[in-house]
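The aim of this short unit is practical: by the end, you should be able to scan a pair of folded records and say something sensible about each. We start with the first protein, listed as its amino acid sequence and then its structure tokens.
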Amino acid sequence: MPAIDRVLIDMVDKNNTQVEQKIANMDLMSPKAQLEQQRLMNQISALISTVSKFFEKKADWIQLIIRSIK
């Protein structure tokens, strides 16, 4: 696996772990904590979307390179 892929995956793993710890430490009964939880979940969704798009583009580049070689 290329180094940039490993770095991105490590960043996502680290961020998810931090978010999970924040959520676990919250008093989920309070409205403020519920808003914070929603904000964190939105951040996770955005991060996953960004990383997914990166890998989709990477796959497109690889297919383009393979087609140009043929």
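Turning to the second protein, read its sequence before its tokens, just as you did above.
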Amino acid sequence: MNISDHTQPHKLERLSFLWSEARLVIAAFALFLGGVPPLLYIFATPSLFFLLGSLLKISWLISGIASGYLLYRWHKGGKTLFGEKSSKDAQVFFVSVVSGLNLGIAGLLGTNVGMSISSNRI
């Protein structure tokens, strides 16, 4: 396995996009569970909380990095999405990027800024 195959800009962009899509699906599922991450809901044993918490923080950091990379590629690529400049695509893209950056900040600081704002606790 050659790492340079996976670090090409188009490959990184694709992997970042797939990660962001998976993150959004998992986040939607978490909303149906009452805002609890699915891993913590499924494996609700106290002995696993440290391990699962660490995995969640790592995945949140990766989400922030992936969203930042997608934003960078969008800016460098002429601000086009899927080969065109559609305002609906841009709006959805920014929701995805902002939520991913929010998760990255949550992984770093331990505070979900988006949830704090929505619950009036900054």
